[in-house]
Design goal:
The chain has about 400 residues and is α+β, with helices and mostly antiparallel strands. It has two domains: about 200 residues, 2-Layer Sandwich (Ribosomal Protein S5, domain 2), CATH 3.30.230; about 170 residues, 2-Layer Sandwich (Alpha-Beta Plaits), CATH 3.30.70. It contains eleven helices and 13 strands. The strands form three sheets. A six-stranded mixed sheet has the order 5-4-6-3-1-13. A four-stranded antiparallel sheet has the order 10-11-9-12. A three-stranded antiparallel sheet has the order 2-7-8, with helices on both faces. Helix 4 packs antiparallel against helix 5. The chain is globular, with a radius of gyration of 21 Å. The structure holds 2-deoxy-2-fluoro-alpha-D-galactopyranose (GAF). 2-deoxy-2-fluoro-alpha-D-galactopyranose (GAF) binds next to helix 5.
Length: about 400
């Protein structure tokens, strides 16, 4: 995982030239993300606090004169996927190319006259690790096509448009977190987002100035039943909100009263996670606004992990072991990031301890018979932007 945007850009350009025999007209990059805190709160109209990774997906594009789109990826350089207007019915294109087709569909559905295009994709965002590789792809293609065809798509509208591609075209019932992070994050900052109003604040996150690092531990745990479990969590939240008579769980103001209203123990646990997680996001933002207190932030991260493990039940053995081992080895706090059921853990560490903490996790994984994890340090990076 290099995070090297120049080489990703070069690879996208070379792939474009090899596939289409010309140079691209426009090139965009969009990053993956980690969510510092605020998990499964987005679809409850709540709060999230992601930051962008230095790892990006790059989309190199050029126009065609006909309403036809051809997408090629370095994952399958010899198997470009072509679709016409007929292929723009949601679900018509499947696999990785669906995320690009979904963007064309969503743009056209929103009334934008997107002409045909050739698109080449290269990426160094780890795939299937819960770091939003799909949102990075969507947001890179969106930026590139908007510039290529001179479309007036305000930046503030882009996350919702990309989310529609994922929800309606691809059919994944996600919230607004990933696309917002990929488009709206700023270097050196975390993005405090209100997922109801889409109001956002760039919160300074001066890790290096404080001798701190966020270590990302990709547990490489295979995602298990992800789609069904994610949809089930959403359904539980909607059911609980209806029983409580509120538009969304974000509107629960008295947790104890809400818990005593609900008979179902499972719904109580789900509600407790969402409500306390929203509070943890607000506490994290309040804390960061007055400087970076690693002990306070670490405690919030660890409390978030416990809530995901015990109340929301979205962790697996690998992520629990990674978080617990990182803490034991000296991290200020650690939590799973992203949708769950595998994926990555983030650990807030003194920079000089990142190596030993990573090694401790690797040793614990070996002892448990788990696949070796991959660790790297991520600095809060820029949101989607044009490269050429
Ligand atoms: C996934 C989804 F895509 C996001 O919308 C969000 O719900 C996240 O899981 C959990 O916080 O990344």
């Amino acid at each position: 995982m290099s995070g090297d945007v120049v080489s990703t850009r070069d690879r996208a350009g070379a792939l474009f030239a090899a596939a289409f025999g010309e140079a691209p007209a426009v090139v965009w990059a969009a990053p993956g993300r980690v969510n510092l805190i605020g998990e499964h709160t987005d679809y409850n109209d709540g709060f999230v606090l992601p930051f962008a990774l230095p790892h990006t997906t790059v989309a190199a594009v050029a126009a065609t004169g006909t309403p036809e789109w051809t997408v090629v990826s370095e994952l399958a350089p010899d198997a470009p996927v072509t679709f016409t207007e007929a292929g723009l019915a949601p679900g018509a294109v499947e696999g990785w190319a669906a995320y690009a087709a979904g963007i064309v569909w969503a743009l056209r559905d929103a009334g934008h006259a997107v002409g045909g295009a050739r698109i080449a994709l290269a990426s160094d965002v780890p795939i299937g690790a819960g770091l939003s590789s799909s949102a990075a792809l969507e947001c890179a293609v969106l930026g590139a096509l908007a510039d290529l065809h001179g479309l007036d798509v305000p930046t503030a509208d882009r996350p919702a448009l990309a989310r529609r591609a994922e929800n309606v075209y691809v059919g994944a019932p996600t919230g607004i977190l990933d696309q917002s992070a990929s488009i709206r994050c700023a270097e050196g900052h975390a993005l405090f987002l209100d997922c109801r109003t889409y109001e956002a604040e760039q919160v300074p996150f001066p890790l290096a100035d404080n001798g701190l690092s966020v270590l990302i531990i990709d547990t490489r745990a295979p995602h298990r039943h992800v789609d069904g479990e994610y949809a089930a969590r959403r359904a539980s939240c909607e059911e609980a909100a209806a029983l409580l008579g509120v538009p969304a769980l974000r509107d629960v103001t008295d947790l104890n009263a809400a818990l005593s209203t609900l008979d179902d123990e499972l719904l109580r646990r789900r509600v407790r996670h969402v409500v306390t997680e929203n509070t943890r996001v607000l506490d994290t933002v309040a804390s960061l606004r007055s400087g970076l207190d690693p002990v306070r932030l670490g405690a919030l991260l660890s409390a978030s992990h416990a809530s995901m493990r015990d109340d929301y039940e979205i962790t697996v053995g690998e992520v629990d072991l990674a978080a617990a081992t990182a803490e034991k080895a000296g991290a200020h706090g650690a939590r799973m990031t992203g949708g769950g059921f595998g994926g990555c853990v983030i650990a807030l560490c003194e920079t000089e301890k990142t190596g030993e903490i990573g090694e401790a996790v690797a040793e614990a994984f070996a002892a448990a018979g788990y696949t070796a994890p991959v660790t790297f340090v991520a600095t809060p990076s820029a949101g989607a932007h044009r490269l050429a």
